[in-house]
Structure prediction request, 346 residues.
Amino acid sequence: MGHARLETVSESRAAMNRFLLIRFLAALVCFAVTASGRAEAARLDFLEINGRLHVDLLAWGQKQGFRSRWNPRTGELLLTNRWARLEFKADTARMELDGVVVWLEWPVLKDRDRPCLSARDLESVVYPLLKPSKLPPNRRIRRIALSAGHGGKDPGNMEGARQEKVFTLKLAQEVERRLRAAGFEVVQVRERDEFVPLEERPSRANRRKADLYLALHFNGAPSGSGSAQGAETYALTLNNGHSTNGGRSSGPQRGNRQDRENLLLAYHIHRMILNSVGLADRGVKHANFVELRDTEMPAALIEGGFMDNREDALKIFSDQERGQLAEAIVDGIQAYRRLVERGAGE
Ligand SMILES: [Zn+2]
Prediction:
């Protein structure tokens, strides 16, 4: 495991870490000053574990005014305050915010019987979701791009005679109707059963200057065993970060300019899907998907259940149930919009 305190690492590494630490501390100070008006609340201790900076979650939680319940035996940590409930578990990258699963980049570690979160996860995953008011304000959300997965020669997942491309298009049209009724403009990346290459999809949304981009898909287990089920919602893998299902970012992409917004959008859509559709929670995940890499606006990719799972299939193939999924997606967009449009003019 190679646990080492900051002082014991090699000189160059220590210099690099000091640089990162200072940069990170500066961000935290700004954050704490504006959040609480008290600069002294900003001091945090960092430790290096496995070559990465970590924050002691108990100390951090206390400074943020959370009540904490930590069980060193099970590795479970619960942090609660009036506004949020955070759950972590040592040795896993699975976190819950208000009951919704979010995947961190790195597992939470135990160091001297205390739970430690990578500084990067704190800065790039936890803060954007916990403190959306720190995002730049005045983002107007009016035009939504919908990318119905697959089409034409590409059927997507197949379940018997049912093709994913048919149901993603139906869902896109159902979302569009509801968005228009709520006063949004809609850009459909494909309007019919046509093949649109992945690379072309973000360009269509970029050309039309959409404010948000949503890719719509349904899952299928590679084995076709039918045992996997539930919804998962993807944001682009963070700049120089790790994807949830393996692999990593290939350097900064256009979509990385919106890392924080991407995550916030994915989270709120995912939350609404879980609340109203009753799909199992597979979490908000990070992936390096082409559709998310080249978008110039915040983007998320929704996998609205597994076509080869009995329970999920009932929801995917029923017009009424799929209508509820469409409704949830619109609710998620509205929730996101309320958070980022603070003080925005018409
Ligand atoms: Zn698909």
The pocket of zinc ion is lined by residues 149-150, 156, 164, 217 (CB under 6 Å). The chain has two domains: 6-134, 143-340. The chain has a mean pLDDT of 88. The longest strand covers residues 212-219.
